[in-house]
Amino acid sequence: MSDVDTPSASARPWYLGALLGVSAWFAGILLLLGMALVFTPKSAAAAAALGALLLGAAFGLLLADRHSGFLAQLGLCISIAGQCLLIFGLSGKASSALSLALSALLVQSALAALMPNRMHRSLSTLFALIAWAIWLRLLEGQGNWGDFWGSSATQAKLGASDLLWQVGLWLCTWLIPGAALWWLLRKMASIGVDRWQQIGLPIARGLIVGIASATALAYAPGLIGSSNASFAGLWPLLSALAAAFMVAAGFRLHSAALIGFTTLCAFIHLSWFYYDLGLSLLMKSIVMMAIGALCLGARALAQTRWRRA
Amino acid sequence: MVTPMHAEFVPPEFDPPSTAQWRRFTLNALGLAGISSLSAGGVFFLAANWQLMNRWQRFSLFEALFLLSAVVAWNARAESLWRQAALAALTVLGGVLLGLYGQTYQTGADTYELFLTWATVALPFAWLSRHPAHWALWALIANIGFGLFVDTLGGFDRLALIVGSGHDSGTSSAWLLLAFANTGLALALRRVAAAEWLSRVLLALGAAIGSQAIALQMGWNSAQTIAPLNAALYLMLCAALVAIALRARLKDIFPLALLGSSLIYLSVVYAVTQIKWENESAFFVLSFWVLGTTAGLVFALLKLHQHWQRALSQAKQ
Q: Is B24 a member of any domain?
């Protein structure tokens, strides 16, 4: 798939891209509301058909946009409205959280691969990861919204002795995207400059942002305020570790923005971990100081060894 | 010989960091994690034992820590991690001591006075550190102090800065002054801390506060109008952004992007208050307005950016 982002787009300052993205989202939601009022799809199939039609139009606009930003902007906006309608249509009934998450995962994965726009690819990758995390969590439970929002059944499961199960679920959720990112970074040179810039890099960025933040985005409602969550504290800790690896991935891509964002995510996950840790304040403080001393000790050791080398 | 004209473009990602760069990155990351974890652990440790200590012990502890940090900062090598950490500790402990004093002796001071005094006490430490992160911490303390001061002006819900339904012109003027203060600070720190990102964060903060101050007065509540003084202050803020964009040694479109975004945002707020929402076409009109204005802004800024880049490369040659 040849991409249509112009060379000027690659030289575009990041904040202009962010401005385009935010405004496209806002405009897309307005468009979706307007469409819903005017067309009012009577069934899931009609919504899916309308969504697919809009996505087709968005694809055309993104493909046609070679010199101006307006068509790409319009394409992104139409795509957002189309995605919402298609996901709603494919999921069948809106009350089934499991099918909604699966539809979102499939639609976003397809869009990340197909849409000829770098920002679209990054955003779709991020949303696909969030949908993936939610889907697995719902799959583990009964597939109801109650599980997602942290019902008592889920809380009991988090507090029970199935620590290994929780670790396994976390690894299952994040090792696959992590492996995909690893593969992309290793195969960068063989992918080729053009394909890397148009496809590889946007997807890698989406994966880095997603792995660093998606646990918080996808699991926040269920974990915040959980009273019986000494094992739930394990998830934020693992996520903090994942975010720390993503800081390194950001460094590998020479991206200060990614390093800053993923560092922030690591801090958020760590704060979450301490909040959820079922220990007294005194014990928490001792754990923190021990970790701090370990980090500084490791730093001193590494510095000494590397100096000798 | 491969000249720049003939060389193929190679993305920076294709050049992996060297072993030395990876090592430096690892050392920095471990240092940051270690210091923040130790500091947070220390604060939590004190919080856990707070009730067990009497007034004398509390003051002695923090004053001893303050003195210890001062000694470390004095003796450590300039630019070393220890010096930076000690100066950061001095900044934090300065606030803790002020808070402890206010709480113990019930001085009756407002919270904003605590934060503004803290900012004053911490200023020399930030100046000595010259580290962008330290300046960012100082700017945060000063902004909270000034924000709390505006909050005391009355008739204003703290949350109203984000979701409020209009407020009096005096409060708006105060927020606009805070916007100016951040813009000025951004300019000053560009020279002192030499950190482009911090300067941009403060510029963005100033533009956001200024825009929201106007939006809250004119929008979300169509009965209100903008006071002439506030309109003038906002126009001056816009002029300041233009001046910063044009006068910077390396001309920068970032302030112009902020200015454009602010104007688009205010136009949307105005439209939202004027549109009759029972008409479905209003959604489409507003959607296309947002798209069109943003695309136009980005197109114009990109052209300007390319023009300035060309001029810069010609000047270098």
A: no
Q: Establish if B40 belongs to a structural domain.
A: no
Taking only the tens place, the pLDDT of each residue in A227-277 is 344 345 677 788 888 999 999 999 999 888 899 899 999 988 888 888 777
How far B203 CA lies from chain A's nearest CA (Å)? 13
The whole-model pTM stands at 0.72
Q: How far apart are CA B225 and CA B206, in angstroms?
A: 22
| Per-residue model confidence as pLDDT tens digits over B105-120 | 887 778 888 999 999 9
Q: Which domain holds residue B106?
A: 52-130
Q: A143 to chain B, minimum CA–CA distance in Å?
A: 35
Question: Do residue B123 and residue B59 come from a single domain?
Answer: yes
Neighboring chain B residues of A252 at a CB cutoff of 8 Å? 13, 16-17
Within a domain: residue B214? Answer: yes
| Residues from chain B contacting residue A65 (CB–CB below 8 Å) | none
Sort out which chain B residues have CB atoms less than 8 A from A282's CB and list them: 45, 48-49
Does residue B210 share a domain with residue B88?
no
Same domain assignment for residues B56 and B197: no
Query: Is B178 in the same domain as B279?
Result: yes
CA of B152, closest CA in chain A: separation in Å?
31
| Residue A3: pLDDT band with limits 50, 70, 90 | very low
| Residue in A with minimal Cα distance to B16 | A252
Distances in Å between the alpha carbon of B87 and those of A36, A177, B39? 57, 41, 13
Interface contact flag, B41 A291, Cβ < 8 Å: yes
Whether A70 and chain B come into contact, CB under 8 Å, resolves to yes
What does DSSP assign to residue B108? -
Query: How many folded domains does chain B comprise?
Result: 2
Q: Are B105 and B236 found together in one domain?
A: no
Q: Are residues B78 and B157 in the same domain?
A: no
